[in-house]
Amino acid sequence: MKSKELKLKEKIKVFEEKSNLNKKNHSPKNVNVGIRVSIDLISTIIVSILIGLGIDKIFSTHPIFFIIFLLLGVITGFYNIIRFMNKLNK
Amino acid sequence: MASPLSQFEIKTIVPLEIFGYDISFTNSSLAMLVTVLLIILFLSLGLKNSSIIPSKGQSLVELSYEFIADMIGDNIGKEGMKYLSFIFSLFMFILLGNLLGMLPYSFTWTSHIIVTFAISFFIFILVTFIAIAKHGLLKFLGFFAPSGVPKAMLILLVPIEVISYLSRPVSLSVRLFANMMAGHTLLKVIGGFVFVLGANSFIVGGALPVAFLVALTGLEIVIAFLQAYVFAILTCLYINDAIHLH
Questions:
Q1: Distance between CA A78 and CA A40 in Å, rounded?
Q2: In B136-167, which ranges are continuous DSSP H helix?
Q3: Smallest CA–CA distance from A30 into chain B, residue
């Protein structure tokens, strides 16, 4: 008797895990992830380049801030992707 | 044959000029006006004879209302319900604009980056305003310095947070614009194949590209829904960030 009960409990556990897994994959937040992430990366880099070029124009120090903000933009883009993916896998 | 990009050309219908600015009524403005009229028609016809047992039109209107209400409840919580009318009108405007573009001879105004950027920049200003009005300027600036981080790391983290905050309107607008423009250009290119293959090959003819075109049209309609949904849900997430600064 007891072993039967245990088996049933195990089955319920497996079923619950499975249904949770299904829910996770079909939740609408996971839709279109590839395009969302890639456009995020590109737009972050473009915005930071524009900020750098703007600062350069004001202080007429042409390549310095452009390079700094380009590097910052790339770092920010990848940092955001990592953060987004960590949130998604939770 | 016309270029696949000629469908995005702006044509002036009624020329207008005020203070040296060109504010002519174009085919893009006409498409937006038709979109708004369609929304008003959809909502007023659906709610004309409202009863407890809904008719087909009424249940469609209730379905769209509940869809947005659930989205706000999931992503913002109860405090977000006062933004329901804003997000609902935003969602319907973009959705019907996308779907209107699927009709032959119409114009897709969501495929112009200046339009989508204007919408998303307005959202950006609204979200910043909400955050400052709710928490004060000092606490809003604290949003860019995550807590529990060693002070040496702040030199790198604060610019990262500021840049990712500033890039929000750009990524929001580019996502909608790129999806719509790429889809419609692809449809036109495949449409060109129908003509070329139908004239030159007698075995397959234009049947293959036509079949492809039918499948792509279905996909385009799915993308029209999806992009309106993504736009609305990201607006929800940004408002959520503004209400619950962390």
A1: 9
A2: 137-142, 151-166
A3: B230
Please give the ipTM for the structure prediction.
0.73
Confidence class for position B8, pLDDT limits 50, 70, 90: confident
SS3 A52: helix
Q: Contacts of residue B164 in chain A, CB cutoff 8 Å?
A: 44, 76, 79-80
Query: What's the pTM value of the predicted model, to 2 decimals?
Result: 0.82
Cβ atoms B158, B145 nearer than 8 A: yes
> Within the 18-37 window of chain A, which residues sit less than 8 Å (CB to CB) from chain B?
28-29, 31-32, 35-36
Domains in chain A: boundaries: 1-31, 32-90
Is A81's Cβ below 8 Å from some Cβ in B? no
Span B115-144, pLDDT tens digits: 999 999 999 999 999 999 988 888 888 888
**B173 within 8 A of B164, measured Cβ to Cβ:** no
Q: Which of B160, B166, B226 sits opposite A79 (nearest CB)?
A: B160
Contact B165, A33 (CB under 8 A): no
A42 to chain B, closest Cα gap in Å: 8
For chain B, the domains span: 4-243
Tokens for B71, please give them.
Answer: 């989205």
Nearest residue, CB atoms, B174 vs list A28, A31, A39: A39
